[in-house]
Amino acid sequence: MIIGQNFRCGFYDIAPAERMDAIRRAGFDAVMFWWGDEFDSTDGNKHMRMRLAIKNGLQVNTLHFPSTCADKLWRKELCEGYADEMIDALYDCAKYGAENLVVHTTRKLITPPYNEDGLNAMGRAVTEAEKLGVNIALENTRFPAYNAYLYDNIRSPRLTLCYDTGHEHCYTKDKNILDLFGDKLSTTHIHDNDGTSDQHHLIGEGNIDFAPILDKLKKLGVKYYNLESYCDEKSIYYGKCSLSRFLALSYGTITGLLTDSDRVFSLRG
Questions:
Q1: Which of 184, 188, 113 lies closest to 143 in space, CA to CA?
Q2: pLDDT (tens digit, 9 = 90+) per residue, 42-68?
Q3: What's the confidence (pLDDT) of residue 75?
Q4: How far apart are the C-alpha atoms of 99 and 177, rounded to whole Å?
């Protein structure tokens, strides 16, 4: 198994090179990137980040396609241009050896009905993904029916699932995403919350029962466990924890649970 940490986890006053080095020193095998330019002012250019990861010996198995305009997929006048942007990102994945491009199927509560125009646009992107040997990993968000629509109509081993623990817990408690789509699983976003909102906490800050989730992930044979937790204003560690301490907690909780499903962590101790 490969244990990864989301690069954009907080501590934005620390230079990107120092943050990357800290991720490596904490023990992580991999780092996960947002593949857009929205955060360049704090995180640096995406290609520069990739070079830093390579320099530090960190794998990059998952790139996150920007979700800020995900509704474009279902808008007739915008969906083909959106597919072109996805395809450009797929070529970057292939260039750098990243197996998964994570894509949202909806944007927050902005949900144009899923439709054939969006289906055809995604189908074109999937065709390119097949040629490149890269996955388009659809993330579970608020509305898994959009994922189901694409899976039902595009039968391709390159159209996969990025399973997000936090999204399931706060948005779709009545559904079991791994039961619905687990056969398509290729990568993960792992973080905690208290069930009321998408807080992106460290494991143990919220109330998700991770032991059965991780047992199921192991049974499904997923390789990539990517932590997507943030040390931001919502976290109990914000302003009280160094970057190295935060990363040590992030790494320790996931590796401990993967080693011993019954282990109980007291993060506040």
A1: 113
A2: 999 999 999 999 999 999 999 999 999
A3: 98
A4: 21
The alpha carbon of residue 112 and the mean position of all alpha carbons in its chain are separated, in whole angstroms, by 23
Structure tokens at 41: 């002012």
Give the separation between CA 263 and CA 266, rounded to whole angstroms.
10
Indicate if the pLDDT at residue 268 is higher than 60. Answer: no
Domain extent for 161: 2-259
In a domain, 266, yes or no: no
pTM of the full structure? 0.95
Is it the case that residue 263 has pLDDT exceeding 50? no
C-alpha–C-alpha distance, residues 126 and 158, integer Å: 7
- Residue 192, strand partner residues: 201
Angle at 160 between CA 156 and CA 162, to 5 degrees: 170
Q: What's the rounded Cα separation, in Å, for the pair 252 and 269?
A: 14
Place of tokens 């996969």: 160
Domain count, the chain: 1
